């Protein structure tokens, strides 16, 4: 039996997610076997849009997973992750949980870039500047971008360094929604996407697709479904044990101490596709109002607040 053990302070979002009869019914159905959203919609006698929103909420809190499987084309199939949930309501060390800095960076607030067409920036209402014109990336309205795409190059963000003086950084995480960039969209379109933090290369992930054809949960109605719609939420973690991508160790040859976080006024996050990448399939970067995840680029910095000798 697969059990999800939650600390008291982590249980609120999961409790909110399951305090809904439709979501509980979805979990029951997924206990039988995996289903896609159409199947769940039919069995629950609910509109597709209502079912999709409820599936998304369960996915966001980690109770189910969604994967792309071949079938009649490519379809998204939902699977239950746990058989039971256990919440620890005993005394907690709240001080430890306060030692974290969280910052959600809007995707339009980058500080540097170099991009090659096809490229563009999109707000919730329209394109920003001209499509396929790198000059548009320097327009003042770029801060309103909710979707950024380019074939090759990079885009860099600088997060404020809020590490308290005298503290030691223990773990740094970044998460963002991304996918490949193809003309319109293409499910079989790999792209090698690389991340750097404070100038140190963290690792490369090969995105399998440029996802389209089915509207993202947050994607504006005016944006045509034959264009990119959503991506995958990826997580990079840097600790004293090495570098990780979605919980899988990439390398242990370098660690968080190589980032010199205490010596810099900002924390740089750069993401892009190298000119010599094997799979030069571009990059789509989604903001909080495009795609499937209501966030920009989220940074989490955990630290030890004791002075280190």
SSE diagram, text form:
Blueprint (H helix, E strand, L loop, with lengths): L2 E5 L3 H8 L2 H12 L4 H8 L3 H13 L3 E8 L1 E8 L3 E5 L5 H4 L2 E6 L6 E11 L4 E2 L18 E14 L7 E12 L11 E7 L2 E8 L3 E2 L15 E3 L1 E8 L2 E4 L2 E4 L14 E8 L9 E4 L10 E8 L5
Parallel strand pairs: 1-4
Antiparallel strand pairs: 2-3, 5-19, 6-7, 6-8, 8-17, 8-18, 9-14, 9-18, 9-19, 10-11, 10-17, 12-13, 14-15, 15-16
Helix pairs in contact: 3-4
Description:
This protein is mostly beta strands. It has 2 domains: 3-88, Winged helix-like DNA-binding domain superfamily/Winged helix DNA-binding domain (Arc Repressor Mutant, subunit A, Orthogonal Bundle), CATH 1.10.10; 94-304, Sandwich (Jelly Rolls). Helix content is 15%, strand content 41%. The chain is built from 5 helices and 19 strands. It has helices at residues 11-18, 21-32, 37-44, 48-60, 94-97; strands at residues 3-7, 64-71, 73-80, 84-88, 100-105, 112-122, 127-128, 147-160, 168-179, 191-197, 200-207, 211-212, 228-230, 232-239, 242-245, 248-251, 266-273, 283-286, 297-304. Strands 5, 6, 7, 8, 9, 10, 11, 14, 15, 16, 17, 18 and 19 form a 13-stranded antiparallel beta sheet that branches. The protein has a two-stranded parallel sheet with strand order 1-4. Strands 2-3 form a two-stranded antiparallel ribbon. Helix 3 packs across helix 4. The model has no long low-confidence stretch (mean pLDDT 90). GO terms for molecular function: DNA binding; DNA-binding transcription factor activity. InterPro entries: ArsR-like_HTH, HTH_ArsR_DNA-bd_dom, WH-like_DNA-bd_sf, WH_DNA-bd_sf. It holds the Pfam family HTH_20. Keywords: DNA-binding. Residues 13-94 form the HTH arsR-type domain.
